[in-house]
Amino acid sequence: MSTLDAFRLDGRHILVTGGRRGLGRAMAEAVAEAGAAVTITARSRDEAEAAAAELSSRGLRARGDALEVTDQQDVSRAFAAAESEFGPITGLINNAGVSIGATALETTPEVYRTVMGTNVDGVWNCSLEFARRLPEGADATILNVGSMSAEIVNRPRWQAPYLASKAAVHQLTKALAAEWADRGIRVNAVAPGYFLTEQSPVDQPEYYADCVAPAALKRYGLPAELGPAAVFLLSGASSFMTGSIVTIDGGYTLF
């Protein structure tokens, strides 16, 4: 196999949670371009199907479906529906997540449960469903979306539950990587820094001093810059990697 062929994802079926926009959408597009069949999920079925239709219009294999990652029954339903169309799911991108800014004392129990439920329980629910459904001997990969926020305190807004949830994702990545290595499942994570998305308007002046200027590269990332990393971590090109947390932050956490 040539070096470039090692990055191909032909014959794989990858399910992406939170894939309708932003980083999830960019990763879904990248793995589809690398040859995988992709199931894009989101809370909104219409938006997930619209994202998939755009990829399909380019000749890529994609389907969309609604998914509430905090609901184990819905996770099981969505995985079964995906497999009925594209076959066994051999790759999973756990991207669904929420970030709600507030001080700790202003954070309501409902907000705390929403953040932890989506960001941690969602990864747990989908990962277990993925592992249970794998055919014996399958070569499989999970890519969790953590954050550099697992190791720093974000500014300019406080968001303690989000930071805690991403630290949990990193540790869960390592724990599952160790436990599931004998099952043929590699588990890695990316830890993005400040990327420009609809939910993260870091191109606005009020964000520059805290989100852009401190990074070594002195800029924010674009979602398309995360896609190739996802392809690498889901493909045979990273075959000797598991339990790794790959920080992609423009050098923000160097200082």
User: If strands are numbered along the chain, what order do they take across the biggest sheet?
Assistant: 3-2-1-4-5-6-7
Number of strands: 7
> Between the first and last Cα atoms, what is the distance in angstroms?
39 Å
Work out the strand percent: 5-15%
Q: Uncertain regions: pLDDT < 50 for 5+ in a row?
A: none
Briefly note the structural class of the backbone.
alpha/beta
How many distinct helices?
7
The main sheet comes to:
7 strands, parallel
Task: Tell me the Rg in angstroms.
Answer: 17 Å
Task: Tell me, rounded to a whole number, the average pLDDT.
Answer: 97
How does this structure look, described?
The chain has about 260 residues and is an alpha/beta fold. The chain has helices at about 20-35, 45-55, 70-85, 110-135, 160-180, 205-210, 225-235, and strands at about 15, 35-40, 60-65, 90-95, 140-145, 185-190, 245-250. Strands 3-2-1-4-5-6-7 form a seven-stranded parallel β-sheet, sandwiched between helices. Helix 5 (about 160-180) links the parallel strand 5 (about 140-145) and strand 6. This is SDR family oxidoreductase. InterPro entries: KR_dom, NAD(P)-bd_dom_sf, SDR_fam. Belongs to the short-chain dehydrogenases/reductases (SDR) family.
Summarize the structure.
With 255 residues, the protein is of the alpha/beta class.
Write the layout of secondary structure elements.
Elements: E1 13-16, H1 22-33, E2 37-42, H2 45-56, E3 62-66, H3 72-86, E4 91-94, H4 109-133, E5 140-145, H5 160-180, E6 185-192, H6 205-212, H7 227-234, E7 245-248
Parallel strand pairs: 1-2, 1-4, 2-3, 4-5, 5-6, 6-7
Protein name: SDR family oxidoreductase
Keywords: Oxidoreductase
Family: Belongs to the short-chain dehydrogenases/reductases (SDR) family.
